[in-house]
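Budget justification, computational time. The allocation requested in the original proposal was used primarily to generate structure tokens for proteins on the priority list. As evidence of use, we reproduce two of the resulting records. The first is shown immediately below.
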Amino acid sequence: MPKRKRNYRRQKLLRDGRIRPRTIPVKKMTKEQLRVGRLLYPFFENEPMPRTRAECREVPRPCPFVRCKYNLYLDVDPRTGSLKLNHPDKEPDELEESCALDIAERGGMTLEEVGLAINTTRERVRQIESAAEERLQNRPEAKKMREDVDEMTNEKDHSLNGSSVTSRFKA
């Protein structure tokens, strides 16, 4: 019986069956792949990209600006130039949520909901959140931010429930 070839290009799956994000190193792309990519997805310098959140709200969804750093379809590593396709099994116009700013504007989400939006696991989202909180606490501006948050929660005119907000930024 002949041996079957293994499919090494098979998509890796997350535990819940979603396809795992895929990183494409630009250095390993052939000149032909780069040429085809430029033809399929031209960079329109004349096309006005929104500069403020107010302008961004007026753009139809899903967001057509894949090169925007808030777009959830792909990420570009600024150091290496490699592309990370967050949803390799979908096209940009097939995403339910295409902009991180839209998600942030809606308010709080569970780790599971964030994981579904950026196509990663709940545990990885928790790790990213804790690393970001640690970086925020070590910044010199953090003390000023803590004071501002404490001031806002102490004022009676504001209706901010600051117990969960201030607990995260306490030193």
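The second record produced under the same allocation is shown here.
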Amino acid sequence: MPKLYPATATSLLPSAMSAGYDRIASQSAKPLAAHPKPGLRSSATRQYRSTDPVLGVEILGAMVFRSEAQARAQYASVCTHGCDAMKFNGWSFKRRSEVEPATSDKAVTLVALCRNVVLGAIRVASDNADHITRQLRGTLDAVFAKAYSSGMTPCGSAATPLPRTGTYYWSESQADTFVVKLVRIPYCDAFANDSGCSGEAPLRLQSADCRGVDERGSTFTYSRFECDVVVYGGYARGRIAVFPTGPASLRWKLL
């Protein structure tokens, strides 16, 4: 019998640092008595902001239901027109992409379902829609991984939930997303021949292409990666080793 997510919606949402943003601009959570939806146990939303225009603004929301059937009914009722239906790592999601007329920024919405949890994510940024989609998908995958670590059975599998402690496992696309969000390369490591590099700010990454090197069974998830990275602007490239330390945290070193 698959196990459902047992805790609150608020505990699923990442901190600003874990999400790769500067701050949480706003957040809300509704108590049980405030919910008009059948079977909805708790819900929460957070808005994240960054000074980086490529990241822009991101809103994450989580809804936790008493049963899978009630969660499926909610998922079926949203984004019924103009959305692409997809799957990723066993969970279902819908995507809608639009252009903000005032700024020409891309607005991408994802709604995802796994067990008794429905997630929503919106990002408005000066980036291409496919790249935004990959990053949002990785963010939602990390939230579901957090639910697995709390006891929920992974979607698309009857496997035992991931342990509360010990090694964490990510998919390769999840690693791509969080390496770009979280890793900052020291300026002197990127430009070792620059005698004036000392004191310069660490560099954000433009892209990461990660390859898992120690698969857990046949799950397509890994606890160690080798990633080819490009710093923002494309001025330097390199390779790093990455080790997940939590649902949305990591250690890394240069190779």
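A brief technical remark on that second record: The longest strand covers residues 40-49.
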